[in-house]
Design goal:
Rossmann fold; single chain; five-stranded antiparallel β-sheet; 4 domains; 39% helix; alpha/beta
Length: 448
């Protein structure tokens, strides 16, 4: 019996409407001292309020389960994307109820204002949708759903608690990957900023000899076949396939820097995942290497249908480390793992020429055997400061320092080009598009 009463009090909440009614009752009692003609009116108002309170309690508590709620969530969340979730609610009361819903979302979002309000008719059902944008990979723990039901009288609320505790993993941005996949399949990559690259010449992979039609390149005419057939015949070529594309991700402290809630490592991971997906659609082989002071994951390049899931599972677990990358060990791994000439995309970050110079000897060695593409980040905050007009001595000092760092980034691009190393200097938010553009450009120019 004690349990029932404790639960009753625990789940009963008084509303502002009840307090307003009590306030009015108190005011009338006070006025009755100055206006005796009010008589029994104050007592009638008070006991009417008490009666309405008891009726409201009876309305909400006579039904054991007046409402039902359940959370609808995907099996996993996509990092840096808006993920759709929903709370399904159903009214089992024979009257209209006002509903307030609290969904206990993971602490990582640091939101304490998740409160949904709605009204339900008898036996009506609703799905309330909302979205969450995680900025870190890992496990996110959701708690219970708490529903506060209020009758048309509105003097109290009854709380219902639905145990919905669950843990959802946050993976690298697979929603972004799917978007690029669909556009690559339908040749609509230009819709999201991917440039259409004009092919120069043709690939070396011969496909067939076919009849000449208007528009064919006359340089591909096969004179021997023409002489045999008596009609103009041309050689047909197709894109070279099964080229190897390796993403190497630097996990050192240089990739810890945050931008719009995500670390540079997360931007590199998202871009690697999308690049691997597009490469597989283009019938190339995709591989992955992660490195810091020691080598992390190594996935040899392949075109199997399971390759992308394998890469996704590995990237999900990667974390930033706090030591510098061991470039000697990385070079040794590249030489051991990558057996043929490949496109090697190295995601890292350099803030100064000194940082580049420490790694340059190893980058030059890798570039001897592979087509090396170094991808690093533009510091957008420094760029904004360098473009801002200085108004005082301190502003001039800050602007000068910012311009110096921005200039160093451009020098790094020139230094890499001097040794035949391709590079991309990109703002974090444009990293994926710029990386895919460069991949398609290199593929079109047959540099791989």
């Amino acid at each position: 019996m004690k349990n029932i009463y404790s639960l009753f009090y625990k789940d009963l909440f008084l509303t502002n409407r009840l307090f307003t009614g009590l306030g009015i009752s108190v005011v009338i009692f006070v006025l009755s001292f100055f206006f005796p003609w009010l008589g029994v009116i104050p007592a009638l108002v008070f006991w009417a309020l008490v009666l309405l309170f008891l009726i409201d309690v009876l309305m909400l508590y006579k039904t054991a389960k007046g409402v039902f709620a359940k959370r609808y969530a995907p099996e996993r969340l996509s990092n840096s994307d808006e993920n759709e979730l929903g709370v399904y609610v159903e009214n089992w009361y024979p009257f209209n109820v006002s509903i307030g819903i609290i969904d206990e979302i993971p602490f990582q979002f640091q939101k304490r204002d998740i409160w949904f309000k709605t009204t339900l008719k008898p036996h009506e059902r609703k799905l309330i949708s909302y979205s969450l944008r995680p900025t870190k990979r890992g496990e996110y723990e959701f708690g219970d759903i708490r529903v506060y039901a209020k009758s048309p009288l509105g003097l109290i609320r009854r709380r219902y608690t639905f145990e919905q505790a669950e843990t959802l993993p946050v993976y690298p941005s697979f929603l972004q990957m799917r978007k690029y996949e669909l556009m690559a399949i339908s040749n609509r990559l230009t819709d999201i900023g991917i440039k259409k690259i004009r092919r120069i010449g043709h690939s070396l992979e011969f496909e067939q000899v076919k009849n000449y039609v208007a528009g064919d390149d006359y340089r591909t005419i096969n004179w021997k076949a023409t002489a045999r057939q008596g009609n103009l015949m041309v050689n047909s070529y197709t894109d070279e396939k099964s080229q190897h594309v390796y993403c190497i991700i630097d996990k050192s402290r240089a990739m810890k820097m945050p931008f719009e809630g995500l670390s540079l490592l997360d931007y590199a991971i998202n871009a690697s995942l999308v690049l691997s997906s597009v490469a597989l659609i283009k019938e190339d082989k995709a591989g992955l290497i992660t490195a810091s002071e020691k080598i992390g994951a190594v996935i040899p390049a392949d075109r199997k249908s399971s390759q992308l899931n394998k890469i996704l599972e590995v990237l999900y677990k990667e974390r930033t480390r706090y030591l510098e990358t061991n470039m000697e060990l990385l070079y040794s791994t590249v030489r051991t793992v990558i057996k043929q000439r490949s496109l090697v995309v190295f995601f890292t970050n350099y803030e100064s020429m000194n940082a580049l110079n420490r790694q340059l000897p190893y980058l030059k060695r890798i570039a001897k055997f592979h087509l090396l593409l170094v991808v690093f980040f533009e510091n957008t905050e420094l760029k904004t400061l360098s473009e801002k007009q200085a108004t005082d001595l301190e502003g001039i000092y800050i602007k000068t320092i910012a311009e110096k760092f921005a200039y160093d980034k451009k020098l790094i691009v020139k230094e890499l080009a001097k040794y035949g190393i391709q590079s991309i200097l990109s703002a974090p938010q444009n990293l994926t598009i710029n990386t895919i553009n460069k991949y398609l450009e290199l593929k079109a120019k047959q540099k791989i």
